[in-house]
């Protein structure tokens, strides 16, 4: 899993040339006037041969079950994934929340730090994700090992 700041329609060919198979867009439409809409990003991504997923996230949604469960699924599959948002930080935080469901929070924070993100302030939220299986019903919990393979590979692009 790698993260990046915002992409333009012309960037998706380069993303594919770097060996990525999927892009996950964490920007809500209309977040900024200069951003491309999700539909345009999807067309550009698919035109470049990439899978495209849109999980719109605001700062208030970062740790919600809906967002984190979707991220677990998208990060847990085969292929190289690039998550992007305005700066890359939101994508890194969502990756961390998803990964914390199967990897200890200290390890997730260490991986974030190694990738250039100083996000110690989310420790409590990551601990809550780690502890989720204990306080939630098994019926709505994603597979615990879905993000283990992506845990060792967060890279800030």
Folded structure, characterized:
The chain is α/β, with parallel strands linked by helices. It has one domain: Protein-Tyrosine Phosphatase, Chain A (Alpha-Beta Complex). It has helices at 12-17, 38-47, 65-76, 89-99, 105-114, 123-130, 132-135, 148-151; strands spanning 2-4, 22-25, 51-54, 81-84, 155-156. The radius of gyration is 15 Å and the shape is globular. The termini are close together. Residues 141-148 have low confidence and may be disordered.
> How many β strands by DSSP?
5
Identify the CATH architecture.
Alpha-Beta Complex
Largest sheet: 5 strands, parallel
Please name the fourth-level CATH homologous superfamily.
Protein tyrosine phosphatase superfamily
Instruction: Name the overall outline.
Output: globular
Tell me the quaternary state: single chain
Mean pLDDT level: 89
State the end-to-end distance: 10 Å
**Gyration radius from CA atoms, angstroms:** 15 Å
Examine the coordinates and then state which fold CATH places here, giving the name of the CATH topology. Protein-Tyrosine Phosphatase, Chain A
Helix content: 40-55%
Spans where pLDDT lies below 50 across 5 or more residues: 141-148
Biggest sheet strand line-up: 3-2-4-1-5
Computed structural class: alpha/beta
SSE pattern = EHEHEHEHHHHHE
Strand content: 5-15%
Discrete helix count: 8
* CATH class call: Alpha Beta
Tally of structural domains: 1
